User: Fold this.
Amino acid sequence: MSLVVALRTNKWTVNEQRVVDQLSAVLGENLKVVFHNRPSDLEPVIDCVDINNDVINDMGLRTVSDWGWRCGDYAYYALRQAYANYDHYMLVEPDVYFGGKPSEFFDHIAQYSHDVIGLGIEDFDPKHFFARRVGNVAPKREILAMNRCIGRDFDYAYAKRKEYSKRQVPERAYSNDEVFCFSYLLENADMQVADFSNIAPQWFENVQFDTAPDMLVENVDREYLQENKILHPVVDREFFKKALAKRMVGRTGVLERSARELQAMTPQDLDEIADIARAQFREHLRAFEPRT
Assistant:
């Protein structure tokens, strides 16, 4: 059965290039990229499916403000429309790392004809805001960084997503890719579902494939470059620094609780608070400095 694999991204960095380098010799012309808001001066090194607000609106899908991040299933539907002749469709995110000989992994999973093969497929908290308004289905989730589905199943999910796009769901509650896609796909009791960690266990044993924390590619290369392993998320040093800093300062609920007092501050006062916070963060990071 035929398979197309697409890298889903909104930029081109060393992480995207690493996945291409790891998979292009294995997949050849069956490796594509679904590119969100591709810069006009960027020529992709593999066949490209471009998506942007106009494309997604024309597909009958709702463009919530962060759909490029929240609605990764949109990339699947665009890939299916662009390349309708494949049996199986697979998305891979740029922070997935393939060690060893990826050809052996793809040869192995080709033996399995399941409708859905993913990682971490499980029930999801129905009280979560992405699940409360998902519809009359039992909430499920899966780690969307890598999965494989049959084309007709994504035709079904796409039709459901178009219906859902017309509902008056508040933007914050508009269901994300992991919850929407797999809640609807798995509502069919006849759906054949498998987990990569069960059908190809050696590739995932004793390594991390989860949503966090980020792993530095230089460390992963030292341990797994020659090993048949798949890990996630694996990123370069620059991405790691920016993402960690964003998470460190992202817990801003304390600011909302002090809104009245903060509004009484001058710009200089706010700059001084930021400087103090920076110094405190740096002090915490000293614990990780190499010992001499």
User: Anything to note?
Assistant: The radius of gyration is 21 Å.
